[in-house]
Write a structure and sequence with these properties.
- The structure is a single chain.
- The protein is an alpha+beta fold.
- It is 18% helix and 33% strand.
- The protein folds into two domains: 48 residues; 155 residues, Glucose Permease (Domain IIA).
- The strands form three sheets. It has an eight-stranded antiparallel beta sheet with strand order 9-5-6-7-11-3-2-13. Strands 1-14-12 form a three-stranded antiparallel beta sheet, with no helix packed on it. A three-stranded antiparallel beta sheet has the order 4-10-8, with no helix packed on it.
- β6 and β7 form a beta hairpin.
- The radius of gyration is 20 Å and the shape is elongated.
- It starts with 7 loop residues before the first helix and ends in a 5-residue tail after the last strand.
């Protein structure tokens, strides 16, 4: 399983520590009990760290309807909310599709569709449990402002959790994304939101409690804008 470059510091350091320890522990006559027990323990620890940063290769679905929005993250749908205004939609009404990522999920974020990056808005905040509704309002977050080909605005939002305290977003104004492309992550569990405009014209294809996969699950279809 490939490991993401966004976690190179963590899994790289774990590898540097684990390899010599494993080699040391498998040498004979060093301990009053078999060294392979300690070697297995160290290898398991490395595997746990590496698992957080796994980056599976995903085949993006084809023949999708126009306006298809793929899931930007792996996890479980924790909320589907309509709001009267949202900064990601330039103050217009929006629908927010929220995904909770546990520590067992793949943490890579992916683009829901082809789009352009208009900028980002980072906010410091708290680190409440990401499973609580309050965490989406007060936790550390990063909003990615995006635009479709016709200029209509939408967005993605990364929200830290109690354990996840490192938002990774290399995107800058002027970048372009292709549907399914990897673009960042939140380390060690978190929340990711997809914010779409014109909520009355969004055909939501998921329900609260559904399991979704980044770059694979069709979350919604937004009707083309007219007029």
């Amino acid at each position: 399983m490939p490991l993401t470059k966004y976690g190179f510091r963590e899994w790289g350091l774990a590898t540097i520590v684990a390899v010599p320890l494993i080699l040391l522990f498998v040498l004979p006559d060093w301990y009053p009990f078999p060294g392979w027990i300690l070697a297995i323990a160290v290898a398991f620890g490395w595997f746990v760290v590496a698992a957080f940063f796994r980056d599976p290769i995903r085949r993006i679905p084809t023949d999708l309807p126009v306006g298809s929005m793929l899931s930007p993250a792996d996890g479980v749908i924790s909320a589907i909310e309509r709001v009267d205004a949202h900064e990601a939609t330039d103050g217009a009404p929006a629908i927010v599709l929220r995904i909770f990522l546990s520590v067992l999920d793949v943490h890579i974020n992916r683009a829901p569709c082809d789009c352009a990056v208009l900028g980002t808005i980072y906010r410091k905040g708290m680190f409440l449990n990401a499973q609580t509704a309050e965490s989406a309002k007060v936790n550390e977050s990063n909003v990615i402002l995006l635009a479709f080909d016709d200029g209509e605005r939408f967005g993605l939002r990364q929200v830290s959790g109690m354990i996840a305290r490192c938002i990774v977003c290399p995107l800058v104004k002027g970048d372009t994304l292709v549907q399914g492309r990897r673009w960042g992550m939140i380390k060690f569990g978190s929340t990711t939101e997809l914010i779409l405009p014109r909520p009355d014209e969004v055909d939501v294809r998921i329900n609260v409690g559904d399991k979704v996969r980044g770059g694979r699950t069709l979350m919604a279809v937004l009707a083309p804008r007219t007029g």
